[in-house]
Amino acid sequence: MGAERYEIPATFEDAGGTSTKEFSLTKTLSCDMPVEDTYSYPAAPLTLINIPDPKKTAASFTYNFYLPNERDAGVGEQFSFDVTNPRERFLLDATLERQPRYVEVAITPADFSSEDDMLSTFKDGIKIEDYVGQIMYEDAISNAYFSAVKLKDTQADDDFYLILSSSVSSFGDMDKLTGVEAAAKLAEAIEESNMAAGSLIRETMGNMQSQGVRYAEGDVDLETAAESLRSVKLLEFDFNVNNLIFGTMVKASLDDQISVYEDELRGIQDIANNVQDVAVASILPGVINAADYEMSLVPIYQELLPGSSVGEDGELVTTYQSATLPVGFIIEKTEIREDGQEIKYDPMYADGHSNLAFIDTGVRYGGVYVYRARTVALVRFEAICIDPEGVEEDQLVMAVCLMASGGRLISAYCSETIPPPPPSDLKFIYDYEFDNLIVLWQPPFNTQQDQVRYQILRRASVNVPFTIIAEIDFDQSVSRVSPPEVVPESILFQTSLPQTSFRDEEFTKDSNFIYTVACVDARGYTSNYAMQIKVSFDKYKNKLETSLISRSGAPKPYPNLYLNVDTFADSMKDSGHSRMKLYFNPEYYSVHKEKIETVTTPGSPGSPPSTTQVKRTENLNLIGEKYKLHIINTDWQQDWLIDISVTDETSLPIAVDPSSAEVMTLGLKD
Question: Which residue in 38, 520, 610, 655 has its CB near the most CB atoms, within 10 A?
Answer without folding.
Answer: 520
